[in-house]
C-alpha cells in the first residue's frame, strides 16, 4: 500500500469511528452517545455533544476516572451542587457542607480542580466553568439513573 493510500485508509477509519459507523469485521461498540441541555444556573448555558460510542471507549481512562472519583465523594458532590447556584467563597463552601477546617475544604477543592470540574473564579471564590455545567448535570443524572433513583 502506498503512503497516500495508507494515510487515506487511516483517515477513513478515524472518520468512521467518529461517526459511529461500523467497518467490516469491526467488533467494537457501534452507534453514538448524545446529550444536551439548556439550563440557567447563575447564567444561561446551552450544550450539545454527540460522540461515537466506539470513540468513547478509546478516551483516556485515567482522565475519566479522575472526574468520576472527584464526583464520587459525598462532600465533593455537595460542593458541586452548591456551586451550581453560582460562585462561592471558600468560607461559604465550608459552612454549607459542614467542614471545620480549611485543610479539609482545600483537600476537596484540589480534587475537584484537578479533575477540571471547578476553577478559582477570583482570589477566594470558586465556580463551575459554564461549559462544564451541563456535563456535570449529565453525570449526576446518569449516576441517579444507574442507582435506580429516576422514575420512568
Structural description of this entry:
There is one protein chain. The protein has 152 residues and is of the alpha+beta class. It has helices at 3-19, 53-56, 61-71, 74-83, 90-97, 102-114, 130-146; strands spanning 32-40, 44-52, 88-89, 119-122, 125-127. The protein has one domain (3-146): Orthogonal Bundle (Arc Repressor Mutant, subunit A). The chain is 53% helix and 18% strand. The longest helix has 17 residues, at 3-19. The protein starts with a helix and ends in a 6-residue tail after the last helix. The model has no long low-confidence stretch (mean pLDDT 87).
Number of beta strands: 5
Largest sheet: 3 strands, antiparallel
> What integer value in Å does the Rg equal?
20 Å
Tally of individual helices: 7
What is the domain tally? 1
Strand pairing plus helix content: what structural class?
A: alpha+beta
Hey, roughly how much beta strand do the residues contain? 15-25%
Rounded to the nearest angstrom, the distance between the terminal CA atoms is 53 Å
What characteristic shape results from the CA principal axes? elongated
Low-confidence stretches: none
Broad CATH class: Mainly Alpha
Helix content: 40-55%
Strand order of the largest sheet: 3-5-4
Which oligomeric form is depicted? single chain
Q: Which series of helices and strands comes N to C?
A: HEEHHHEHHEEH
CATH topology descriptor: Arc Repressor Mutant, subunit A
